[in-house]
């Protein structure tokens, strides 16, 4: 079948404008929204098709989303931000883009589409949220999104007969830690993804997540509610053995050297510091306790929202220890075993896990050394609670 210049296919999601039905829907959407568009480029077939695909070709739903996006553009002027933010805010832009933020467009795929790479595990989201004001954070994120949009549009115009389209993103999780899953950090990630989801739909071609630590496996269920179904379909989790797969799409010459490629290394990362501020290493925030011989150590957690997630890490210096969780309702003095107590070789590895709280009440984290009459245990631990309201989760 003959291809037309209006055919776009992402790696896992196909937009077909060859059929009469799809052409009709694009024209119908254009007619509905033409008076709301900020400029003619936003009425081109490829741009309109993205809104239709994300709304499963429902014209009315796509029109509502499109009009909302145009209202956002009128209020925030992203094109102007793209042109003026680097010069008008030179110090902070240079600091974020060229000194601190370990993420940028590194080049193009073998067939010419943008590649964005980010060492997310090296970011300090809490530091950024505390030290960079919201207006600057959003402006910088908007600048990056518009830079990607500009490159995609240039490739559309140059390529004409397009079979694949969209940005390829590589996210390196080396260094991912506890701080990336605090309430403040999750607010940072939601702020970044929210602008993209509402105003730049169906621009992702492929998302590669690489160098995933054990912590990521546990936290993936926390992250997935923030991602739409289309993004999940395009996501590949590759662990540490990824170069053979990625290099099929991206030349090794542009993949950063600190990710196994031969391109320039990604910059920066680590604890966030503003221009002129001295960078200092941040200490990991662990609590410590001594669990006596034949004794226990406990920490109580009060949960008020059903579906809240309790997650924890712990280790011991020389010997194993038991761990479990007990539950007690606010109206009941009797507690029951929610997570059965069992012994862990916590002296050889950090034990990490989570529990989704099925109901409100008091949950007691219980470290058990009653089996040892002769040895006390030196414990390091930390835990956190994330509520459905913070996560935007469907666990409630």
| End-to-end gap | 48 Å
* Rg on CA atoms, Å: 25 Å
Could you spell the SSE succession in H and E letters?
A: EEHHHHHEEHHEHEHHEHEEEEEEEEH
Main β-sheet, spatial strand arrangement: 3-4-5-6-7
Low-pLDDT runs of 5+ residues are 1-16
The largest sheet is: 5 strands, mixed
Shape: elongated
Kindly report the average pLDDT value.
Answer: 86
Our count of helices gives 12
Q: Roughly what fraction of the amino acids lie in strands?
A: 15-25%
Instruction: Estimate percent helicity.
Output: 25-40%
The strand count comes to 15
Sheet/helix structural class: alpha+beta
Write the layout of secondary structure elements.
Blueprint: E1 8-9, E2 14-15, H1 20-33, H2 45-54, H3 59-76, H4 78-88, H5 90-100, E3 103-108, E4 114-118, H6 125-131, H7 134-159, E5 167-172, H8 183-199, E6 204-210, H9 214-223, H10 229-233, E7 235-239, H11 243-246, E8 287-291, E9 296-303, E10 309-316, E11 321-328, E12 336-344, E13 351-356, E14 361-368, E15 377-386, H12 388-391
Parallel strand pairs: 4-5, 5-6, 6-7
Antiparallel strand pairs: 1-2, 3-4, 8-15, 9-14, 10-13, 10-15, 11-12, 11-14
């Amino acid at each position: 079948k003959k291809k037309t210049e209006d055919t776009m296919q992402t790696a896992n999601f196909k937009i077909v404008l060859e059929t009469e039905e799809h052409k009709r829907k694009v024209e119908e959407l254009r007619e509905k929204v033409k008076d709301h568009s900020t400029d003619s480029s936003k009425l081109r077939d490829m741009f309109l098709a993205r809104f239709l695909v994300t709304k499963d070709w429902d014209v009315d739903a796509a029109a509502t989303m499109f009009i909302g996006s145009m209202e956002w553009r009128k209020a925030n002027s992203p094109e102007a931000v793209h042109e003026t933010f680097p010069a008008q805010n030179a110090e902070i832009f240079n600091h974020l883009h060229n000194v601190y933020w370990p993420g940028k467009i590194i080049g193009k795929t073998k067939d010419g589409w943008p590649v964005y790479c980010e060492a997310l595990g090296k970011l300090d989201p809490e530091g950024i949220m505390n030290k960079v004001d919201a207006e600057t954070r959003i402006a910088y994120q908007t600048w990056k999104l518009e830079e990607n949009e500009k490159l995609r549009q240039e490739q559309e115009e140059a390529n004409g007969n397009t079979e694949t389209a969209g940005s390829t993103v590589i996210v390196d999780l080396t260094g991912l830690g506890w701080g990336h899953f605090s309430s403040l950090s999750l607010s940072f990630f939601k702020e970044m993804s929210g602008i993209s989801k509402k105003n730049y739909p169906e621009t992702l071609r492929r998302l590669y997540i690489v160098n995933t630590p054990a912590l990521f496996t546990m936290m993936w269920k926390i992250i997935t509610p923030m991602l739409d179904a289309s993004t999940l379909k395009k996501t590949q989790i590759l662990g540490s053995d990824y170069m053979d797969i990625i290099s099929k799409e991206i030349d090794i010459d542009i993949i950063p050297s600190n990710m196994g490629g031969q391109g320039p290394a990604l910059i920066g990362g680590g604890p966030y510091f503003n221009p002129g501020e001295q960078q200092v290493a941040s200490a990991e925030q662990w609590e410590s306790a001594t669990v006596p011989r034949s004794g226990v150590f406990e920490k109580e957690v009060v949960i008020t929202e059903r579906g809240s997630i309790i997650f924890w890490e712990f280790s011991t210096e020389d010997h194993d220890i038991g761990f479990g969780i007990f539950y007690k309702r606010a109206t009941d003095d009797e507690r029951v075993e929610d997570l059965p107590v069992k012994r862990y070789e916590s002296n050889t590895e950090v034990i990490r896990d989570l529990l989704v709280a099925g109901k409100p009440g008091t949950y007691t984290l219980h470290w058990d050394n009653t089996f040892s009459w002769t040895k006390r245990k030196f414990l390091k631990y930390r835990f956190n609670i994330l509520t459905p309201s913070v996560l935007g989760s469907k666990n409630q």
